[in-house]
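To the wet lab folks,

You asked to see what we're planning to order before we commit. Fair enough. Below is the target structure as tokens, and below that is the sequence we designed to fit it. If anything looks off to you, flag it before the synthesis order goes out.
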């Protein structure tokens, strides 16, 4: 793992701890839901006009972030857009295009940080406003232990009704984290959280080690005022192209093997140089 971020992670024993990651612009460089708009268009779920509108929404999201009002408008728009979509078809499209669309936009720094938390014995939880049908496969790709995501109501016909069953946004993210802490035995005071948006202040405030990642203006102000660490993630990379960080026991074992090999080499060389009696 990059040394610049290794120092932010400490190893702890019991009680259990966790690291909570926002997804969009924290772990991946774009909006997870809007990234699939072209695939949904090709699959016949949305028309060209809707595809262009989601592309524009993605642009606004990337350039300026999204405040509370923008997130609410985005929620209403996406809820109406997905009304009538067949859930199984959505899952199949996501599964077919996941590696092509999401793998290249995962931040190297975030992937390394996730590995570090796992190495420290800490659960990794993705907490995202995007829909579960999108977030759960991404969480599996990242090796997350759990996922908290928005859930849409599904009708008896297997299609979205357009209604929202659970909206993982703002204070509800923090509530979900506290419920998980109670059910899983996490010590939140010793747990970590990462987000890019001021809308996730309740989430960050719920843990003892909050971090602002690529923060918007409002979150940057809060982070500076509260002396929270500010991290800059800017290197998207495919997971297969990364050099994974081996678990610490493996590092120790590798060092021991290397030392033994070096010692054996020195002994062999000395015996070669010793005069024959």
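Sequence we intend to order:
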């Amino acid at each position: 793992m990059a040394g610049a971020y290794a120092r932010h992670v400490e190893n702890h024993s019991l009680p259990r701890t966790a690291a909570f990651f926002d997804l969009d612009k924290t772990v991946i460089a774009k909006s997870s839901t809007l990234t699939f708009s072209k695939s949904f268009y090709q699959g016949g779920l949305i028309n060209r006009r809707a595809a262009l509108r989601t592309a524009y929404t993605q642009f606004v999201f990337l350039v300026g972030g999204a405040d509370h009002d923008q997130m609410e408008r985005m929620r209403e728009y996406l809820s109406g857009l997905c009304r009538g979509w067949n859930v199984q078809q959505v899952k199949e499209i996501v599964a077919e295009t996941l590696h092509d669309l999401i793998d290249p936009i995962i931040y190297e720094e975030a992937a390394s940080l996730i590995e570090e938390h796992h190495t420290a014995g800490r659960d990794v939880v993705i907490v995202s406003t995007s829909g579960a049908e999108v977030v759960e496969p991404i969480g599996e790709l990242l090796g997350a232990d759990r996922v908290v995501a928005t859930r849409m109501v599904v009708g008896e016909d297997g299609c979205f009704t357009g209604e929202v069953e659970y909206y993982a946004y703002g204070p509800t993210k923090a509530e979900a984290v506290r419920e998980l802490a109670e059910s899983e035995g996490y010590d939140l005071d010793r747990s970590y959280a990462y987000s890019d948006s001021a809308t996730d202040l309740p989430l960050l405030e719920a843990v003892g080690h909050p971090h602002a990642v690529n923060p918007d203006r409002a979150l940057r102000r809060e982070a500076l005022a509260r002396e929270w660490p500010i991290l800059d993630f800017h290197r998207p990379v495919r997971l297969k192209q990364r050099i994974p960080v081996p678990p610490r026991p493996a590092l120790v074992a590798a060092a021991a093997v290397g030392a033994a090999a070096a010692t054996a080499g020195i002994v062999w060389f000395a015996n070669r140089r010793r005069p024959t009696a």
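Structural context that might help your review: The beta strands are 18-21, 123-131, 146-154, 160-166, 192-195, 209-213, 230-231. The chain has twelve helices and seven strands.

Thanks,
Computational group
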